[in-house]
Each structure stands twice: as structure tokens, then as C-alpha cells.
Amino acid sequence: MKTAEEILAAIKTALPEAKVELVQNPSVSGQHSLVVAPEDGLAVAVFLRDDSELALDFCSNATGVDWLDKETTEKVKATEVVDGEEKVIEKTVKHIQPGYLESVYHLYSMRQKHGPVIFRMRTANRTDQVELPSMTPVWRSCEFQEREIFDLFGIVFKGHPDLRRILMWDEFEDHPMRRDYVDPDDYEYEPTPHDEVLKRAQEHQAQQNEAKQAAEVTQ
Amino acid sequence: MSTAAFKSYRPPVIEPSNEGELLEVAMGPHHPSTHGVFRMDVALDGEIVIKLKPVFGYLHRNHEKIAEKASYLASMPYTDRLDYFCSMTNNWAYAIAVEKLAGIEVPERAQYIRVITAELTRIQNHASAIGFLLQEMGASGTPLMYAFREREKILDIFEELSGSRMMCNYMRFGGCRVELPKDWLEKVAAIVDGLPRFIDEIEALLTGNEILMARTQGVGVLKPDLAVNAGITGPMLRATGVNYDIRKVDRYGIYDRFEFRVPLGDHGDIYDRYMVRVLEMRESVGILRQALKDVPAGPIVDPKQKVRGFRPKPGEAYGRIEGPKGELGFYLISDGSGNPYRYRVRPPSLINLTVLEDMCIGQNVADVVLTFGSVDIVLGEVDR
Amino acid sequence: MLGEGIVKGLAETAKNFAGSFVSKERLTTVQYPEERVEPIENTRDFPFLVYDGSDPMAGLRCVACQICEKECPPKCIYITKSTDKKPDYVGKPQIYPARFDIDISVCMSCQICVEVCPFEAIKMDTEFELSTTDRFEGLILDREQLAKSNEYYNKIHPTEAAEVDARLAEEKAKVEAKAKAAAAAAAAKAAAPASGETTAKPAPQKDPAKEPGA
Fold it and tell me: Residues of the signal sequence (chain A) (predicted)?
């Protein structure tokens, strides 16, 4: 089995234009991954599958990860002129690293019996540019898994033959696996005297009653 | 960047004899053969299936989200409820993923116990899978009841060990939860000695049965290249003739110490899947005999491992095992806190259904039920 | 010959049918509820609270630390701490649960509360016939319903309970020895031997190790 660095080098020789990076995994598992630019995704995937030495013919696991916007603060010293005097003022500068959605594929080879090679693609942001190329034409096993990512994370896979919701119902609007997903508050009655669930359900009920009363008044 | 033409797999397309006469049927969600709540939207041209779309999600509870909000340990009992036939292997897969993530060593004794429980799980799963397949074929009762009679013995053994028949919640990161009860290994040995007789019985009942052969041979055929591309694993893959058993490939746990063969099929039809399951049960009996011989003494769990407050270092890991239904994998991302940042289950049942349409197109409706039954799924794992 | 496999199969079922009249191996069904299988020792069902002595509320081992409430995966345990204190099994004054509810309609019998409890206060019951006509309030078990004696625990899980009792007795002996040593030291210091004796003797309580079944 080649290491992730060797695979990266192999991709670079075969596809010199492809933008591929290696991401180190700090865990003891040592499963490092390759981040591929979305526009090169399909070409790299086909290479990984059809290269005779790698022969990663089996895409075991495809999943999504949601990375939220990261806010980092940094203290910066700057000289400013205050009341005609020069002073060194310390300022805190906030950097917002935009979040993104990520699709992760774990590839193995059934022919060569090695793996895993981890292959990632990242969207530009989490809101409107959430398109990634679909791997279903390359590995059929991604068909349902990519539908699941679309359903639960909201990544839109270009080139997927049948991109519909799979686990949630068709009318459902949100993407429940996103980190900032807010649970709906219309719970059924729960007898457990637990906490905010009951409180929120009661608030929801009160709101509904108000809306109902308002509707009756207008009639 | 443009890509040259590459091989891609799609379900076959059949031209219907008369477009206007197509009948669309929703098989399920409440149908005795669907093992739970599962729907197949089928388009029929007379008796022939033209199109088949599986519909899931009736049992969806977002197990992954629940796990991301709970501690690492708290997800362990939830894994029992994925594939509720094989809670021991589910536990093991999750434990392996966490052990990879945090670099935990498992004591020898615990490794042996894991192998013993996993192989017992495999036997009872395959036995009931065969029983259900026959049930769907119309052999109401008898084979299923024979299978359940054996399964009951194994479940009793699990109850003695872990306290629960099906929701074992037995494995822990770095070992197992409790020490074996007195005489447990002897009881397992007695059951294992009785198993070949049961397998012979099932084989006498079914293997040569002309009705079974007529209904299953050449039905639901899956080609090896499609099976590999579609990520099919477990007995279904091996029935197509692809030699891929994660116990042999990854040699996780201590499987490199045992001698066993990997049964393979030739045709990839339902009969081959049945035969592969029967032969795998025989191999599992062999593994059990070898494992029971030399269970060492020692600690059952890594003594450094504490029950509460488990926080692995940041990073990610993918751990997988050969579950009775196929490759069961867990993908975990840790951000250093007490609960996983990302927790993903790779469900063999869901991914094995990818090719259901390919296998069913061009067949009769009655064979759809059989083909579906031969995949051996549990909806708790498909929908999660 | 066509039909040979079917005949072979029928012979197998006939063997089982005839065998079921003579062999218990082949007739495994049990006519519940008239007949019952023997209970398996490790069986777990829903949790209960262990108490020592004869008064359930005074003898509760639980100190309302709320670890189980926090660790419970489906969050079915609800605890309110008391404002006053009562002595525990070694005689140390401890907070006790003023309210301890378990919603067994939510509980999934995973035993994690038992594993994380540092005081051996919560254990798994084997009682499974818990049907009730009230599906909400009837399935919330409160402190009084949950409290079961240590003798009961010894009866349902003898091996495990014996280990627990031995461990508790050892701890208690350690604490007592420590208290005695402290008392002796205090006595030597103050030269008043009676002063330390009272702290070494906890509130009236049975020694769990000496109970029947231990």
C-alpha cells in the first residue's frame, strides 16, 4: 500500500493540473486524506479507480461533514496618532474563517486488498455555493450515500442521476445534520418532567393558541 | 478539467411492451416481506418489473445526530439498535473505530471474547436470514422456527453474559464490560457442539429441495464487477465470487490466529447467497472451536480506560469490521471534546440495497420479494 | 430423482415432529404465563435504587450526585437534590435525592447508570411485568417505587451483589479503621478517651456483608 504522500505524487504525475493537497490527520489512526478541488474531483476519482496499481475500485463510505465558520481573534499592535501624540495601541482583530461543507470518501481496493485512501472535496461556503461533483458515475455505491448527504447536509451533487431526499420526507426543508440546525419545537406531549423540551413545547402550544384566537377574531 | 470516457454502472433499461399499460405498485411500507417498514415503488409491465425505486426513512431517527450530541460511551447502547440482530458486532465496530481514534490497546482475553461473541452473532444472523428467506418463499414457519430455536440458545448465552438478549451493550473501548460468568465458556462449547447438527438439519431440509432450487437458481443475479463498483459487501458480494472478507483483509482483532476459509459463490444468484450463508455458519463454528480452546486469563478491559470523561485527541478515524450483513464501518471525527464532532455509520444494509433495482429489473413480482429477502437487511440500520 | 430433496426435507420435519413428543430438545416453547423459564442471573431490565436496613427512604445509598442523570443516554432520570443531609453507609452525612424519577417508557435498559454510579446505589432489576393502564404517569417510577432492599438485590443477582457487598464492607472497615486511628490520635492528644468513639459508630445500620445471601 502506498502512503498518502506517494498517492499524491502519483496523482501529480498523472494529472499535473489537478489541485490536490494532503491533509494530515493528527490522530494515532494515521489516516491522512487528500483534498481535491471540486473541479478536478471527477478526473482524480477516475484516476484512482482505474489506475492499475492503486485500483481503488471499492468506495466503502461516503459522508458529509459540516464545518462552521471559525472565528479567531488576534491581538495586533498598531501605532496611532491620538491627540497629536503617537501611541502604541493594542487592538483585537477578528478573523472569520468561512465554514464549508465537505464530502468524504473512503476508498479501498478489492483487487489489491489495500486501503483506505481518503478523498475529500470542499464547497466554497455553507449557504449558496454548495455544489460538488457527484462520484456516483465512478462508484455506484455512492448513489444512496450521496442522496443521504444531500438530504442531511445539503450538498448538491452535480451529475447525480437521481438526487432526491432519501431519509427525510420530500416536503422537509432543512438539513438536520448541519451543526447549526435548530430542532423544531412542536413536540408531542412528553411526560418526562425533563427540562426545556417541555417548556418549549408549552411555548409552542401557547403561540399556536394565540394564532388560532387571532384567526377567530378576524373571522 | 475534462475526463475521458470511463465505465459507469446504471440499472438496465427495459422497453415496456406497451407504454400505456404500465402498472405502478407501491410494495410496502407494510408488507410482511419488507422486514419492517420499507417501500418499493415498482412499475410493472404485466408481471415483469420495469422499474423499481426503494423508498426509505420510515424508521429514521437520526442516530448520527443523537450520537454527536451524546458522549462517546452513550452512543454504545444506541449502536445495538442499528442492526438489532447483531448488536455484538455493532458494538465491536464502534469500539474498533474509537480504539483507532484514540489508540487504545485491547487485552488478549477481551479479543477472544469479542471473536466468540461476534461469530455466535454471525451464526444466529445467518440462521435467521435463511429462515426469513424461506418464509418469503412461502415455506411458512418450519425453517424459520428451526432457525429461531437455535438462535434462542445463542441469545440465552448473550443474556447470561451481558444481561440482555438482543441489546447487549457489551463492548467497551479497550475491551468488554463485564467478566464472563461462571461456566460460560463451557456452555458456549456445548452450544457450538450442537450447531453442526442444526446446520446439517437445515441443509437436509433445504439444500437439495427442488422447489427452493427452482425458485432461487438464476434469480436475482448480480455480476461481480457491478457488485464491487456498487460497494456490496458481506455474503452478497462473496456469492458473486469476489473474495473479499474483511476478517482476512484487515485481520482486525485476532482473526489472523484462526484458520478459516472464505466461501464463494459462482453465479451470484439467490441460491448462492443461501449457500454462502450456510457455509459461513460452518466456518464460524470452526473459528469458535479454535477460539474456545485457548481463551487466556487476564484483564477484560484496558485498566487505564476510565468509564466516564473519555476525550480522545483531535483527529479522525474510520474503523470497520466484517459484520454478518457486510462491512460495518464507523467514521469518527474528534475535536477533543467529550462527544464526537462527526459520527457516521456505514450501514451495510443500506448500501447492499443499491443494486436491488439492477437485480429485480426484468423479473417477476414474486421474485422481487425473494431477491429483496436474500439481501438480508434490517431496517433499523437502513434508516438509522 | 426429482422430488428426492423434498422427501428428504419432509423426513427431517417428520423427525422433528415425532421427536417433539419425547425430547425436550425439540420442543422448546414454553407456555407463558402458566409456565416460566428459569430466570437468568445477569438479566437486566430497568434500574432500581438499593437501600440498606429496613427503612427504604433512610437507607438509600444514593447521594444525588446526578452522575447517572448526566450520563444517561436517553435522559430518562430526573433527580432533585435534598437541602439537608443524612448519614450514608459509612456514617458520613450526605445529601440524598429529594426526588428521583425514572421514566421507564424512555429508559432503554442500557445499564450505563449502573456502570457510572460510584456509590453502588443504582442496580438493574429483573422485573418485566410492568404493564399499566396509564401510559404517561404510570410509567414514571418515583423514589418510593424504585427503592428496593439489598436483600432483594442479593436475591436477583447473587454473584454480583456478593461482590458489591464485600467491596462496601471493605470500604467501611477502612473508613472505620481510619476514624478509629483518628479518634485514638485525638484521644491521645486530648487525653480524653471517650470523645472520638461516637464518630466511629455510624447511624444504626446493618453490616451488608453479614446479611443472609452475602
Answer: none
Mind telling me how many Å the CA of B243 is from chain A's nearest CA?
8
Number of folded domains that form chain A: 2
Same domain, B51 and B174: no
Residues A160 and A208 reside in one and the same domain: no
Q: What angle do CA A150, A154, A160 make, to 5 degrees?
A: 35
**Is there a single domain that holds both residue B40 and residue B96?**
no
Q: Do residue C42 and residue B163 have CB atoms under 8 angstroms apart? A: yes
We report the CATH number of the domain holding residue B337 as 1.10.645.10
Interface of C with A in 49-88 (CB under 8 A): 75-76, 78
* CATH of residue C192: 3.30.70.3270
CA distance C96 to chain B (A): 22
ipTM: 0.86
Per-residue pLDDT for chain B (384 aa), expressed as one digit of tens each? 555 678 888 888 888 777 667 888 888 787 777 777 888 888 888 888 888 888 888 888 888 888 888 888 888 899 988 888 888 999 999 999 988 888 888 888 889 999 999 999 999 999 989 988 888 888 777 888 888 888 888 998 999 888 888 888 888 888 888 888 888 889 999 999 988 988 888 888 888 888 888 888 888 888 898 899 898 998 999 999 899 988 888 888 888 888 889 999 888 889 999 999 999 999 999 999 998 888 888 888 887 777 777 888 888 899 899 989 989 999 999 888 888 999 999 999 899 988 988 888 888 888 888 888 888 888 888 888
Enter the pTM of the model: 0.86
Name the region of B326 (left: φ>0; alpha: ψ -120 to 50; beta: rest): left
Range of the domain at C207: 41-214
Chains that touch A (3 or more CB pairs under 8 A): B, C
Backbone torsions φ then ψ of B376, nearest 5 degrees: 65, 80
The residue range of the domain holding B376 is 63-383
| Least confident piece of the model among A210-214, B29-33, C5-9 | B29-33
Q: Does A91 fall in a domain?
A: no
Domain count, chain C: 1
- Per DSSP, the residues of C100-156 read EEEETTT-----HHHHH-TTS-EEE--------S-SSGGGEE-HHHHEEEHHHHHHH
Of C12, C44, C71, the CB nearest to B163: C44
The answer to whether B130 and B274 are in contact (CB under 8 A) is: yes
Q: How far apart are CA B297 and CA C26, in angstroms?
A: 36
Which residues span the domain enclosing A123?
4-67+100-172
Task: Give just the sign of the alpha carbon dihedral B196, B202, B205, B207.
Answer: negative
In this structure, the number of other CB atoms found within 10 A of the CB of residue A80 comes to: 10
**Cα C106–chain centre separation:** 19
Residue where the block lists cell 456490496: B232
Alpha carbon of B185: minimum distance to chain A alpha carbons (Å)? 33
pLDDT at B122: 92
